[in-house]
Write a structure and sequence with these properties.
mainly alpha; Transferase(Phosphotransferase), domain 1; about 0% strand; extended
Length: about 280
């Protein structure tokens, strides 16, 4: 898209794949078929070279008015992308033809930008020989087209097929029940404290957990204890200011004096008669 000053703005990253570094391979299948690289369609695993194929398909679309491979249905479009012949109009300049063909190489390792040079190989192509990339990035280049806008809400540059439609809000279902709403507790948009804990380090109340879990947990203001591998198997000491007074320590009673006759042990109530019966002959 174009900004109000005519500079390019990239949008719609909802389906982008992050952290695809050199040597990384992914198998995600998503995107618009007409702009997807053949290695995505055959699901053989792909890397960031698929972005250069998509750029070539977009460049072809901007130069000719349609994507390079199209058909009457999805299946035939995919077949053309995988094994169809690329047709280039005669009115394209030699540099444009060469760059499009290099973008649309079916072998990712032969595709321009797909090698170790990445974007630098694309920037050095003769098609871009008049581009100062530093000035372009800093927006010091005078854009060839500046949209004429009356206000920030001016949509005159958009396709009338969309702007003439009556805006309709998405249906709003009834409020969630209390039990259903429990599934969303702790999400960052309702719990700013989660973001704070990420910045300051995770914290939790000390509980009886496995030694491995305790040993890997940092100390926090809530739990100013230094855990050892064996503290998960014994109760932790109480806080400095307990809510209830501590119980006195258990001290065993002193042994009775030697002159004192030990008290008899009272038998259970259910066996009194039997014990008395056995004691009578002794009298």
């Amino acid at each position: 898209m174009l900004s109000s000053q005519g500079h390019i703005k990239l949008t719609d990253f909802g389906l982008c794949k992050e952290s695809i570094h050199e040597g990384a391979v992914t198998h995600t299948f998503c995107g618009t078929i007409e702009y997807m690289a053949p290695e995505i369609l055959v699901r053989s695993g792909h890397n960031r070279a698929v972005d250069w194929w998509s750029l070539g398909a977009l460049m072809y679309d901007m130069l000719t008015g349609s994507p390079p491979f199209t058909a009457e249905n999805r299946k035939k479009t995919m077949d053309k992308i995988i094994k169809g012949k690329l047709a280039l109009p005669p009115y394209l300049t030699p540099d444009a033809r060469d760059l499009v063909k290099k973008f649309l190489k079916r072998n990712p390792s032969q595709r321009i930008g797909g090698g170790p040079g990445d974007a630098a190989d694309v920037q050095r192509h003769p098609f871009f020989r008049h581009i100062n990339w530093d000035d372009l990035l800093a927006r010091r280049v005078d854009p060839p087209f500046k949209p004429c806008l009356q206000s920030e809400e001016d949509v005159s540059q958009f396709d009338p097929r969309f702007t003439r439609q009556t805006p309709v809000d998405s249906p709003d279902d009834a409020a969630l029940s209390e039990s259903a709403n429990q599934a969303f507790l702790g999400f960052t948009y309702v719990a700013p404290s989660v973001l704070d804990s990420i910045r300051e380090g995770f914290s939790f109340q000390p509980k009886l957990r496995s030694p491995r879990r305790l040993n890997s947990s940092p100390r926090t203001p809530i739990s100013p204890l230094k855990f050892s591998p064996f503290e998960g198997f014994r109760p932790s000491p109480g806080p400095p200011e307990p809510m209830e007074p501590p119980l006195p320590p258990l001290v065993p009673p002193p042994p009775p004096p030697s002159s004192t006759v030990p008290l008899p042990i009272r038998p259970p109530s259910g066996t009194k008669k039997s014990k008395r019966g056995r004691g009578r002959p002794g009298r």
